[in-house]
Design a protein that fits this description.
alpha/beta
């Protein structure tokens, strides 16, 4: 069977403080269809890696501004480099043909892992549901609520970093820290019966069976308080949460689909984000109806 071609060119980040070395590697990889990013310092490597998620990083063991153990914990010894997460260890000068063949196999494996992850139900970043998994679980919970005539709610959360005072971190770094903290708190304090997932990079949603409007508001307050308390213990300075929710008391009677509740919750969240001086937690109200602000 012929190999299926990737849907896009592989993106390679070449990280080295020597211009000649970067140019040399770029001259090998570019003719084989690689899109190239350059980084000249350890900090620039970390920033580009988080912003662009390259398919591979060809990285020098040492930088003037950062030791090898920091980016990405790669040291001079071959076995230690592999142990610390490197896929391979190359010595200079590089054999061009060997490098291309090695990277071809590694990139093919990486693309296959990406395809498998996209088709899966779990978010690799947080270990919670991804959007696909959350929607599937929401349909299951909605069907059960319909059969038994029970309540169902959705609460959407996002960090509000507008009041942050920690100037030692960039906004992107604070957002990454917030997402990590939120995911850990959701896993530790969320109810077993709920479906919790990440719907966008900085946004999470909870599908809560047996939960009506007052219960959804109570849940939003409880999880917000838990995350803000954890923030004080984990030095994510200035983190507060915004939330939106929607709920029905009886799925069968209302005929409401879980996807509609999720859309309502995220709409209410967007309203909180658009009006940062307003209530942090809002209930969704249909267009033309009076907006219900919770707090």
């Amino acid at each position: 069977m012929a190999e299926s071609a990737p849907s896009r060119p592989p993106l390679a980040l070449i990280a080295n403080d020597q211009e000649w070395s970067i140019r040399s590697l770029e001259s090998i990889l570019a003719p084989h269809g690689y899109a190239i990013l350059r980084a000249y310092t350890g900090r620039q490597t970390l920033d580009l890696a988080s912003e662009t998620t390259p398919d591979l990083i060809v990285i020098h063991a040492q930088f003037p501004d950062m030791t090898g153990i920091e980016v990405p914990r790669t040291r001079q010894q071959r076995l230690e480099a592999l142990h610390e997460g490197a896929w391979d260890f190359l010595s200079l000068p590089v054999d061009a043909e060997e490098l291309v063949l090695r990277l071809k196999a590694s990139v093919a494996l990486k693309f296959e892992v990406d395809r498998t992850r996209e088709q899966g139900l779990v978010d690799n970043l947080t270990g919670l549901y991804n959007l696909r998994g959350l929607m599937r679980r929401a349909r299951e919970l909605g069907s059960d609520a319909y059969r038994h005539g029970r309540a169902l709610a959705c609460v959407a959360f996002a960090p509000d970093l507008s009041n942050g005072e920690d100037l030692s971190l960039t906004e992107d770094q604070r957002l990454w820290a917030a997402v990590d903290l939120m995911a850990r708190v959701f896993k530790d304090t969320g109810r077993v019966s709920d479906a919790i997932g990440r719907i966008r990079f900085g946004e999470f949603a909870v599908i809560a069976p047996g939960t009506d409007e007052p219960g959804a508001l109570k849940m939003a307050r409880r999880l917000t308080a838990a995350i803000e308390a954890a923030e004080r213990r984990n030095d994510v300075a200035g983190l507060t949460l915004l939330a939106g929710y929607d709920a029905v008391a009886d799925v069968r009677e209302s005929g409401t689909q879980p996807a509609v509740l999720m859309a309502g919750a995220t709409t209410a969240l967007r309203q909180s984000q658009a009006e940062p001086s307003g209530p942090a937690i809002r209930r969704y109200a249909a267009e033309g109806a009076e907006q219900l602000n919770s707090e």
